[in-house]
Amino acid sequence: xxxxxxxxxxxxxxxxxxxxxxxxxxxxxxxxxxxxxxxxxxxxxxxxxxxxxxxxxxxxxxxxxxxxxxxxxxxxxxxxxxxxxxxxxxxxxxxxxxxx
Length: 100
What we know:
The chain has 100 residues and is largely without helices or strands. It has strands spanning 42-45, 52-55.
């Protein structure tokens, strides 16, 4: 009789040894990759499952879920401290996960 081979299942909302996160889907680009690793530019809370991943505001990376990210968390300049919108009197353009 042949021994069974067992592998972890990513995307099932169960955190296993080699998984950093598990957001119960197989979609990369939302903070938790399709291989259950935390993606650059995101923080994930896996204390409850499925994992809750949010962009890191203030890191100069304009990720999905951020309107703008000017590199800090101050609301006294161009972008609100939570990266939700430009400060009154400013408009923001550009930005990507790799450029401010």
